[in-house]
Design brief:
Layout lengths: L10 E4 L6 H31 L6 H28 L5 E3 H34 L4 H4 L2 H27 L8 E2 L6 H5 L7 H35 L3 H29 L8 H25 L2 H22 L1
Length: about 325
């Protein structure tokens, strides 16, 4: 192949979910509402944790990080997708595509590591409750959070640099809703087997390693719960982990299915739907899961709403 053909394209065209105008308008309205709910729901969770001193614990410190990640991840993809629903030409500049890949891939990796950290927190809370405050002290929590952010960001930086060094020739049509790594490397006009191996290796390190740590934590947690003699004690211990376990099952499931075996990856439509799930549904579901299934959060909401009600009554009189 001629060297002249092996050039970087200046912009890409995202094919998105549909080319039908009416469908795009419907999707625009739906995704806009979901994005607004995502931003509002997660910022309300963060605000609630900041305002209620009972929630100033390691678990809710990590939940604050999770909410920030969810909002950031959705923001890295959804606004551009909304703009494309209303645009005739769905182009994205080369630099913007690289930035989108970096942030979405990085934030996804950060979330997986953070979920493993949160699993360790739940392990200490259930299996070693008397020493919980000693083990999960502020310094350790901050270091664990920093480790999550740094590991995900470094992996994303490496993957982004490797991906966008590939010659794209004249290929510029990305059959996806965003600059997702598997969709981008398919545009390369050279052998991408080494890139697929790199993706698989990073997935094992940043996805399967945290997943195994989560699995080990919950094996120990379940074993401890089963040893509790009272039904009420077992129920209380289970509810301590229920919200986190629900998020773990949802978050890890489809990502493992998508990235661990690039050669046998799902269809393009499935990849798009999986991306929609992580960009739209997961950031909406996370605050709902922690609000509905968590007694402490529900109690904090009731306290806050009660205070607002009293304040409103005083202002009205």
């Amino acid at each position: 192949m001629d060297t002249d053909n092996k050039t970087w394209v200046r912009e890409f065209i995202l094919l998105g979910l549909s080319s039908d105008w009416d469908t795009q308008i419907s999707l625009f309205i739906f995704f806009l509402i979901m994005y607004m709910v995502t931003v509002l729901g997660n910022f309300l969770i963060i605000l609630l944790i900041r305002l209620d001193s009972r929630l100033h614990t390691p678990m809710y410190f990590f939940l604050t990080n999770l909410s920030l990640i969810d909002v950031s991840y959705a923001t890295s993809i959804v606004p551009q997708m909304l703009a494309h629903f209303l645009a005739a030409h769905k182009t994205i500049p080369f630099v913007s595509c690289a930035a989108q890949l970096f942030f979405s891939l990085g934030l996804g990796g950060i979330e997986f590591v953070l979920l493993a950290v949160m699993a360790y927190d739940r392990y200490v809370a259930v299996c070693n409750p008397l020493r919980y405050s000693v083990i999960m002290h502020g310094g350790l929590c901050i270091r664990l959070a920093i480790t999550s952010w740094v590991s995900g960001s470094v992996n994303s930086l490496i993957q982004t640099v490797i991906t966008f060094q590939l010659p794209m020739c004249t290929n510029k049509y990305i059959d996806h809703i965003s600059c997702e790594i598997l969709a981008v490397i398919r545009l390369a006009c050279v052998d991408i087997s080494s890139n697929e191996i790199a993706i698989m290796v990073s997935s094992i390190v940043l996805l399967m390693t945290p997943f195994c740590l989560v699995l080990l934590s919950y094996i120990q947690i379940i074993s401890t719960i089963l040893k509790i003699q009272s039904t009420e004690g077992r129920k209380k211990a289970f509810h301590t982990c229920a919200s986190h376990l629900t998020v773990v099952v949802l978050c890890y499931g489809m990502t493992i299915f998508t990235y661990i075996q690039p050669h046998s990856s799902p269809s393009v439509l499935q990849e798009k739907l999986i991306s929609v799930f992580y960009a739209i549904l997961m950031p909406v579901l996370n605050p709902m899961i922690y609000s509905v299934r968590n007694k402490e959060v529900k109690g904090a909401w009731q306290k806050l709403l009660g205070q607002l009600s009293v304040l409103t009554s005083k202002l009205a009189t």
